[in-house]
Structures are given as structure tokens and as C-alpha cells.
């Protein structure tokens, strides 16, 4: 009673409502003033941080290990100690795609390094298989393109090896051209541009794509589609015929575009998944919002699992050269997580909708089949948008 009587006669500074505690029950404003010493700001910061951290500790373990637990808690009204479903899903979505983007860059860099290593070890013996001067020049162009990609790694030792390998390849190519009675290959090719690059590639890249002509579309939609196709054509042309630097930039643009478009496409996919649940469990007479909460928690679990899988893969890649057993242990974690994903979703569906195992399995596989098609279309749309980035 002492705590309640201490607020007797005190009114909210915002709406003048009599206070019964530290927060106004009418507008929610705190009784404490924002004008306080600096140490008070630090205390408030740490209090807020620890409160959020506590909610994370209460949310993430059951999300990963207890199928359907958070959803049933949310339905029963126990929501304060857990992170809200949409916020949880959205944050995990962004984090998972960010880590996936990093993993894609790491994989692409390792592939470039392996390709550069293979190209540097090339001794040019396959020039002897070429039967015409054109075949020799085309083969030399591909090899020089690979060397230029290796040169872009920027390592001084690699650059020296690239120069030596290029000189050796040109000698091998010229020897074969001499045997075929043709003129030697041009040795004045600038670094980063293969000697056999077609002369009309730049002009083709500068040509605009035709304007989209669909009668029932508004002009702004036609313009956006035309820009989309133009971006796709430019990136593909640059990736296929540009210099190694331009190809690398185009590749990074497309990868960044794909991962930038994925969160938006997944946000569109979640209410569609909830609609699937509503149709399959129509006779359960549940509100659409309940199915939407199930969809949000299901996708939050998917994103958390993907985040852990890709983190384990990246750690395995980084640790294997330094501590092989730790790297292999991190790699082994990925398989149980992949098996746990469908198992978790099946158990979650069974616990929430409370049907027998036979009906649950039938509906689970039907929803999974439909969702795979929807996910495929979503990934295709994200890939198209990424290629146009």
C-alpha cells in the first residue's frame, strides 16, 4: 500500500490523469522526468539492454528447441516475456540473409582462388589439341581471362606468377600458330581485356532494349519493366564479355541485388503461407490472425536455423586450416540442423492444430508441396530483380 499511496495527488504531466503507479494508465507516459543527470541515462540504457537481452534468452531457446511452444504461449496470453512474432521473424530474416550474403561472398572468393591456382599451374599443353588458328586464339583468350581474374586478387606474388604464366601461355600459343601456318597472337593486349574480345560487344551493350508494349499496363509500369530488362541485359553482357574487373563488379551487383530482394519477397510469402494454413484447417474455425502467428513463428524458426547452418559452415571453412577438428565439428552441426527443420515444423503443426498423426502428415506434405512451389517462384522473382540491380 505504501507504493500506491506515494502517488496520491500526483497527476500525469501529459494528460492530467491521476496516477496510481510509475506509468499513466491512460496514455502510458512515465512519471519520471527525462531531465536527469548523465549517470541516469547510463542506468536507463543498461536497464533497457538487459530487458531486451532477457526477452531474447526467453525467446530463442524455445523457438529453436520447443516446436509450437511460443505460439501456444502467445495464444494463451503470456506474451510479455517474449519478443513479438513479427519483430522476431523480421530481425532473424535480415540476419540470416546477411550471413548468407557473407557466405556467398566467401564461397565466390574461394572459387576464384582455386580457379586462379589452377590457371597458374596451366602449362599450355592443350594448345596442341587445337586444329585451327581460331581455336588457338579462343583458347588463349579464355586462359588470359582466367589470368586476369587471378591478377585481380592483388597479391604481389600472384601478380608475378601471372606475368610469368601469361608469357609462357603466349609462347605456347604462338608455337602452335606457327605450326598451323598462322600469324602469332597479338602480344600487346592490355591487362584486364582479353585479346580475342569481339569488337562489337561494346556496341551491343550500348544498344537499349525495346520498350515494353503491353496495352493494358500503365505507362509507369511499362517504363519500370523496360528498365528491369535493360538492367538484366547490361549485367549479363558485362558478366559474359566485360573485363575481369567489370565481370566481378557485375557479379557483386547481382548477388547483392538478389539478397536485397529476398527479405521483401519472403515478407510477401508469409501471409500467403498463413492463407494456406487457413484453407487446410478451414473446419478448425480459427481466425486468420492465428494462422498468421503460426506462419511468423515458423518462418522465424526457419531463419534462425538457416542462420546457424551458414554460421557453422563459415566457421568450419575458416577454422579447418588452423584447427581441423574444430572445423569438422562445426561442419557436422549442419546435418542435424537440416534434419531438425522438417521434424520441428511437423511437430509444431501437430501440437498447435491438435489433429491425429495421419491427417497431420497428409496436410503437412500438402502444405510443404504448395510452399515449395511458392518459394521457387519467390526465389525466381528475387533472382530476376537481383540480375537487374
Automatic annotation (TrEMBL):
Spans through the membrane: 88-108, 258-282, 294-319, 325-348, 360-388
Region (Disordered): 181-204
UniProt xrefs under InterPro entries: DUF3667 (IPR022134)
Domain of life according to the entry: Bacteria
Keywords for the protein's UniProt record, in alphabetical order: Membrane, Transmembrane, Transmembrane helix
Protein name: DUF3667 domain-containing protein
Organism this protein belongs to: Dyella lipolytica
Classification of source organism: Bacteria, Pseudomonadati, Pseudomonadota, Gammaproteobacteria, Lysobacterales
Amino acid at each position: 500500500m505504501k507504493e500506491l499511496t506515494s502517488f496520491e495527488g500526483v497527476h500525469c504531466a501529459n494528460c492530467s490523469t491521476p496516477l496510481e503507479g510509475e506509468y499513466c494508465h491512460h496514455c502510458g507516459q512515465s512519471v519520471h522526468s527525462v531531465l536527469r543527470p548523465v549517470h541516469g541515462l547510463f542506468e536507463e540504457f543498461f536497464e533497457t539492454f538487459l530487458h531486451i537481452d532477457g526477452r531474447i534468452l526467453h525467446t530463442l531457446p524455445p523457438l529453436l528447441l520447443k516446436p509450437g511452444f511460443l505460439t501456444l504461449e502467445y495464444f494463451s496470453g503470456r506474451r510479455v516475456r517474449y519478443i513479438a512474432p513479427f519483430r522476431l521473424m523480421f530481425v532473424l530474416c535480415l540476419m540470416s540473409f546477411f550471413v548468407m550474403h557473407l557466405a556467398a561472398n566467401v564461397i565466390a572468393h574461394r572459387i576464384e582462388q582455386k580457379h586462379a591456382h589452377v590457371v597458374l599451374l596451366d602449362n599450355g599443353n592443350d594448345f596442341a589439341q587445337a586444329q585451327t588458328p581460331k581455336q588457338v586464339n579462343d583458347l588463349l583468350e579464355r586462359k588470359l581471362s582466367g589470368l586476369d581474374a587471378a591478377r585481380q586478387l592483388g597479391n604481389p606474388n600472384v601478380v608475378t606468377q601471372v606475368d610469368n604464366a601469361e608469357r609462357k601461355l603466349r609462347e605456347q600459343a604462338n608455337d602452335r600458330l606457327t605450326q598451323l601456318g598462322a600469324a602469332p597472337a597479338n602480344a600487346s593486349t592490355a591487362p584486364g581485356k582479353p585479346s580475342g574480345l569481339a569488337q562489337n560487344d561494346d556496341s551491343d551493350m550500348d544498344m537499349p532494349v525495346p520498350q515494353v508494349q503491353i496495352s493494358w499496363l500503365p505507362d509507369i509500369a511499362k517504363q519500370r519493366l523496360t528498365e528491369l530488362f535493360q538492367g538484366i541485359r547490361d549485367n549479363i553482357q558485362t558478366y559474359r564479355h566485360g573485363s575481369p574487373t567489370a565481370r566481378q563488379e557485375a557479379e557483386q551487383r547481382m548477388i547483392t541485388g538478389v539478397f536485397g530482394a529476398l527479405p521483401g519477397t519472403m515478407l510477401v510469402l508469409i501471409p500467403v503461407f498463413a492463407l494456406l494454413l487457413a484453407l487446410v484447417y478451414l473446419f478448425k474455425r480459427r481466425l486468420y490472425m492465428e494462422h498468421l502467428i503460426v506462419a511468423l513463428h515458423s518462418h522465424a524458426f526457419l531463419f534462425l536455423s538457416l542462420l546457424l547452418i551458414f554460421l557453422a559452415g563459415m566457421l568450419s571453412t575458416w577454422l579447418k586450416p588452423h584447427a581441423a577438428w574444430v572445423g569438422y565439428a562445426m561442419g557436422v552441426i549442419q546435418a542435424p540442423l537440416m534434419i531438425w527443420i522438417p521434424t520441428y515444423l511437423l511437430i509444431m503443426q501437430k501440437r498447435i492444430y491438435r489433429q491425429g498423426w495421419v491427417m497431420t502428415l497428409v496436410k503437412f506434405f500438402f502444405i510443404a508441396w504448395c510452399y515449395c512451389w511458392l518459394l521457387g517462384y519467390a526465389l525466381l522473382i528475387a533472382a530476376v530483380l537481383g540480375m537487374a540491380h
